Amino acid sequence: MITSDFKKKMTDSWFSYLQSQICKEFEYLEKNKIKFVKRNWKKNKINEGGGTSFLLSNGKIFDKVGVNKSTVSGIFPKKFRSKILGAGKKGKYWATGISVVAHMKNPKIPAIHFNTRFIVTSKEWFGGGMDVTPSFKDLKEKKMIHDDLRSICNQNKKSYKKYKKWCDEYFYLPHRKEARGIGGIFFDYETKNWIENFKFVRELGLTFIEISKKIIKRKEKLKWTKLDKEKQLLKRGRYVEFNLLYDRGTKFGLNSGGNIDSILMSLPPEAKWK
Predict the structure, then answer these.
(1) If you write DSSP's letter for every residue of the chain in order, what string do you get?
(2) So what's the pLDDT on residue 89?
(3) Residue 145 in contact with residue 184, Cβ under 8 Å?
(4) Mean pLDDT over each residue of the chain, to the nearest integer
(5) Closest by alpha carbon to 52, among 229, 265, 254?
(6) pLDDT band for position 260 (cuts 50, 70, 90)
(7) Which residues pair with 49 in a beta bridge?
(8) Under a CB-based contact definition with an 8 Å cutoff, are residues 22 and 67 in contact?
(9) Which of 50, 76, 182, 262 could make an S-S bridge to 42, C-beta 3.0–4.6 Å?
């Protein structure tokens, strides 16, 4: 039988490894001319963990990209416990995960988001996914992304159709009556068969790297105009609205005593509203 401590150790180690790989690959895309800045943080209470944030800003490819990994524990606020699987009356939890948000310099290259996590309360489960938010329509790119995500789901006997639908429903701005982007996959509360789920989470992390590289290399040399940048900044405004109003990760971080700067890492360096 696999113990809970073993699961915690393995997931924590994997997310640290994946964080280092993503930073390495993204620095390579910048031709190693600009590096991530590392910052460690700890929760206010002793022995409740913390995290590591890597931030790269004002590159030739990335306007801003954050790669955050955290491993934390503690007690959820009473008002938040009913919203978390297995939190119960005690509200005790342990969680580890990685989150990546990349906002691009070139408006023709879409923003990319990825996260995976493992959470333990009286229950234990995996969640996460990846999605893409372009400022300009590109049906060929959309097909490429979804083909790759469908493939990784099929290889791991996961329902791409279910995860895609969940993503489309999750990354939606009801007050705007519009989707945030072109979707991807999203999943949560995967409680059964830890070994298979952990395998899927690992492979999804590596797939995220490959999809990101394909997207960027395909468009990094495209020319753009001030009007293109204006459209990108307006689209970023929608990104901000979703993350501050609806995003579960933002709410989880704020209610679990996370680091504010890391939680708000997803926000772009610049955005506009009409």
Answers:
(1) ---HHHHHHHHHHHHHHHHHHHHHHHHHHTTTSS-PEEEEEE-SSTTSEEEEEEEEES-SSEEEEEEEEEEEEEE--HHHHTTSTT-TTT-EEEEEEEEEEEEESSTTSPEEEEEEEEEESSSEEEEEEEEEE-SS--HHHHHHHHHHHHHHHHHTT--HHHHHHHHHHHSEETTTTEESSSEEEEEEEE-S-HHHHHHHHHHHHHHHHHHHHHHHHHHTT----HHHHHHHHHHHHHHHHHHHHT-HHHHHHHHTT--HHHHGGGS-S-----
(2) 83
(3) yes
(4) 94
(5) 265
(6) confident
(7) 72
(8) yes
(9) 50
Output the CA torsion 264→176→274→100 (10° steps).
30
Q: Which of 103, 113, 146, 175 is catalytic?
A: 113
216 confidence band (pLDDT: 50, 70, 90) = very high
Distance, C-alpha 162 to centroid of its chain: 19
Strand partners, 115: 99, 129
Question: Are the C-beta atoms of residues 95 and 256 closer than 8 Å to each other?
Answer: yes
Confidence class of residue 154 from pLDDT cuts 50, 70 and 90? very high
Give the predicted TM-score (pTM) of the model. 0.94
Measured in residues, the chain has a length of 274
Which of these, 121, 125, 98, 123, lies nearest to 190 by C-alpha position? 125
Task: Name residue, tokens 């994997």.
Answer: 14
CB 200 within 8 A of CB 41: no
Task: Compute the distance between CA of residue 62 and CA of residue 65 in angstroms, rounded to an integer.
Answer: 6
Q: Which residues contact 79 (CB under 8 A, 6 or more apart)?
A: none
**Dist CA 169 CA 201 (whole Å):** 21
pLDDT at position 238 is 96
Go through the domains of the chain in sequence order and give each one's CATH number. 4-265 (3.40.1500.10)
